[in-house]
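Standup notes, structure subgroup. Blocker cleared on the magnesium ion input:
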Amino acid sequence: EKMGLNEIREKYLRFFESKEHLILPSFSLIPKNDKSLLLISAGMAPLKPYFTGQEVPPKERITTCQKCIRTGDIERVGKTARHATFFEMLGNFSFGDYFKEGAISWAWEFVTEVLKLPQDRLWVTIYLDDDEAFEIWNKKVGVPAEKIVRMGKEDNFWEIGVGPCGPCSEIYFDRGEDKGCGKPDCAIGCDCDRFVEFWNLVFTQFDKDEEGNYSLLEKPNIDTGMGLERIATIMQGVDTIFDVDTMKNIRDQVCKVAKVQYGKDASTDSSVRLITDHIRSVTFMVSDGILPSNEGRGYVLRRLLRRAARHGKLLGVDNTFLWDLCDVVIDNSKHAYIELGEKKDYIKKVIKLEEERFDQTIDQGMIILNDYIQELKKNSKAVMTGDKAFKLYDTYGFPIELTLEILEEQGISIDIDGFNSEMTVQKERARAAREETNYMGADMDIFTTLPAEMVTTFNGYHDTVSKGRI
Ligand code: ATP
Ligand code: MG
Ligand code: MG
Ligand code: MG
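Run returned:
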């Protein structure tokens, strides 16, 4: 009998509870008092004040399963076996209590004794000159030296926005040659899906400030993060995160609604995976109080939702369907995240409204966009002007990234500077109009009642996509 995703989560939290950790529920996806992050993208992010000593944690040892969004990975979703925009991160944290030795030996104990993963398939990486970590893995835990790989800053130094950071050590699982790219130099660190990184142990020793300076923290901490969907993929011996029990429930429902079969056609499958992923992000974001808008988090939500809606069209779905998919997402996760069950009707209503709104213009917008594409091709041009992209955005509700993506399939790019300047002009016009009418910034948008902390400024396409490394 395979261990289900929900069961793995429970096992992890109970294991660290038995090591005297306090279990805390997941924090909201909306960061509190952290301007360096748009959305929570790691288990440690909401705990930053405890790491820096700004606040006193309820206990020196904490364990959580944190909801995470990483829009930076959006292009990889459905293409790799292991990336999602929404995922759950299991973590155990030490605030000045245990350090490298505790973190490493408990991680190993959990992986080999609780999950019972075969040791000969496991690999670890350490930061370049971290001999201390090497000694612990090699001497204390008994991992052979040839399976401890030293990697550089890109992979084994962890930081997110400002705040606590440090060198890290990661645990990988070798899924076997048949899951890999087959290239002769394929080895740990290869970007294919053979060696899958599933757990990152961060030795938080530094604090990074706004200017990028690192200072030593008074007491070193531990921050670990293990992707729940990833470890479930490994435990269940399936191909991708989309084959994990709970994910498959959603995937099956997508196929049912779209009347397609999974595993028959590559481009169909890729749309199915994309929708399966995005509907999770959307459901969890709405449950945490994010509403579709043209700025900040609301824009991320809108973009994900509209991208999923467009892929629904590609599959031949001709009515709104995303709001209905929420049921299976909620059923999968409502025991771990009670807010999902409690807000079910609200979540569905918000998604339905946004879906209907996009549905009214998407067909028309696609016709216009196809005209633009034909015209460009006729004139052998490969760059679409900013004003055209802006029109699709402004009149037909196409997030710029969506237009970019559709054009990319045709080998066409967009004059982004041109788009951004149209955007600035529009903002300016809207501001002037507001001043004139003293209209308090309200338009006919039903979604304008955003809490002040959720409103961020649109600084052009690049800034809204992702912040920092992730
Ligand atoms: P990768 O190199 O595979 O992109 P990462 O190094 O960016 O992962 P970390 O920041 O170390 O990931 O996050 C800790 C863990 O969270 C990872 O080891 C992985 O198990 C999980 N994880 C990270 N990104 C994703 C994602 N997009 N989808 C699902 N799980 C993820
Ligand atoms: Mg990595
Ligand atoms: Mg990592
Ligand atoms: Mg990554």
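Discussed briefly. DSSP finds 16 helices and eleven strands in the chain.
Next: hand off to the docking folks.
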